């Protein structure tokens, strides 16, 4: 045999602490056919700075679709089927780098996904630039060992083969035809090269994660041993591996034989079904009945003489609506006839390779008036790769190499729903059949009609009122996940364990919005002291901060007067410009120079916020430059007057020192104390402290300007005139 090794690699990704599925970094690989060995090379590393500590990285694996994970232990939506993912932990302690290998023998061909993430996020809101987070990097590489000339086992044809040694197992594959109801594998004439009885182990199927349904068969001696499989995967290659359990030097000769039992539909019942029969690419075909027949290329004597249950297929049209959004429409109407004689089959095509990033929803509704037997139950199974064709005997919806999802409706419970999160890439089947509690003999002619609604959606129920459905991308692969808010959690934001009440949401909105009214005293002081430009800036900041936080709320207490992004930009711009004009006003510059700096600084701040809205230097840069200008101006004034500036100790004690203290406390709260849980009151404290500090720091009005004299401005009956005299100075 000729083996070929192949290597696939993807670029490293920076890991994030987990708070929702978008924090998990996804890697997407494709395993080729005839792969006999798969090896993952997982490389994790961290930075070398003092902020880097020991960390545990969790890595999840899954075949066919992204892994469904739940690191936070939250609840999934009702009717959702969840099977735990296969995962390993990689610890980064004293070592800067960790390399781990994961081997998978006889892996299933197709898409494989790896998701990696750090532990749960701490919840603290970090200001960009104040702290340097430690970088944790993760990279996944894939090595495959592929057999280029794997022997093909033909149905009904005995195939003699030789296992050279226990270290070199034998690999064979067989193609499972469409409509295969069962498969029988038989191993004959097992002898060693020393003409002794041999012991071999046969493994049928491939390994899939998180669950593997690989079937094992151990044959001892020269007697024949066989294995029967129900509902093998349709139109797929099935790998068979034979390994010797005997001595190392002895070769083993075996003879394999495989046969299929096929349930073919009969003639088409209508012209519409005939068109569907010709155009459908996979799955069962419509028909009024069926009979057992050998598969193509199979000898007649390999078919079991017993008659098994055939199938009644309903034509289904796949209608693509959007990205990861599909609706399945039944050509004969949403109501499906179901009988007790044979299962009714519906094909749900999810094999495009881009459908596994959403949620498959199947909803069944029983028409109670159509049930001919009161105590009958309509059993249903949703399965991938192959349908369940014996619902009367297999109530757990299991096929040869997979486990389906059971559903049932009856007159007492007429509706049932199933949600499959991230369904694997494959052909999915919905099988329905009428069952009776005392056996099929009781309801040999029972019938019912069931309305079927099936669709693929990016996020179930669009993540509800407390979540946002986000479309994520890894290279060319798209998948969706829910980002929850207001304390809600879970896969679809249905877990209300830590949810905020409506009263808490209203309180948070009121605190964050009404706390901006503390700018009113600063505006009044600015107007009283003739700082009208500064007062206009404070009014602008108060207005947009109020309505930005009214629109930024995660719950139901939300009001947006304009686009969210516009409100956020105007809020950030107003906050930085307010600090800029306040410090420049304290510098006591000449009017023309002050207003030039006002305009020029505002334009530069607007540009920097457009580049990086949350960068700390967008606020610290203008503040430090304005402080430099203010200190320079104060030194100039002090040197010119030959005493400290400002000269009044009352100005320092009652205005400057309280204002500076409030400003430093506000910066400390903003930078180091805010978390997701306390944001609504810590950020409100930030609003109050900043507004109060502005009122304290504004300098007094110029001495030559008199206060607003509103009575003198009135011209009622008498006009009070004032004689202004200019003093002229003669220069000689």
Write the layout of secondary structure elements.
Layout: E1 3-9, E2 13-14, E3 17-18, E4 25-31, E5 35-46, E6 55-63, E7 80-81, E8 86-92, E9 97-105, E10 110-120, E11 136-147, E12 159-163, E13 170-176, E14 180-192, E15 199-204, E16 215-220, E17 225-230, E18 236-244, E19 252-265, H1 271-279, E20 290-293, E21 312-314, E22 316-322, E23 325-330, E24 335-339, E25 344-350, E26 359-366, E27 377-384, E28 405-410, E29 415-421, E30 426-435, E31 447-457, E32 467-474, E33 477-484, H2 502-514, H3 519-528, H4 532-551, H5 564-586, H6 591-611, H7 617-641, H8 649-673, H9 679-697, H10 710-713
Parallel strand pairs: 3-10, 7-29, 21-25
Antiparallel strand pairs: 1-11, 2-11, 4-10, 5-9, 5-11, 6-8, 6-10, 12-19, 13-18, 14-17, 14-19, 15-16, 15-18, 19-20, 22-23, 23-31, 24-31, 25-30, 26-29, 26-31, 27-28, 27-30, 32-33
Summarize the structure.
The protein is of the alpha+beta class and 732 residues long.
Portion of residues within helices: 10-25%
How many domain units? 4
Going by CATH, the architecture of the largest domain would be Up-down Bundle
DSSP, total strands: 33
Approximately how much beta-strand content do the residues carry?
A: 25-35%
Largest sheet features: 7 strands, mixed
| The CATH C-level class name of the largest domain | Mainly Alpha
Gross geometry: elongated
Give the integer mean of the pLDDT values.
84
Q: Provide the structure class.
A: alpha+beta
In whole angstroms, the N-to-C terminal distance is 114 Å
CATH level 3 topology of the largest domain = Rhopdopsin 7-helix transmembrane proteins
Rg: 37 Å
Please work out how many helical segments DSSP would assign: 10
Q: Low-confidence segments, ≥5 residues, pLDDT <50? A: 266-309, 724-732
Query: What's the assembly state of these chains?
Result: single chain
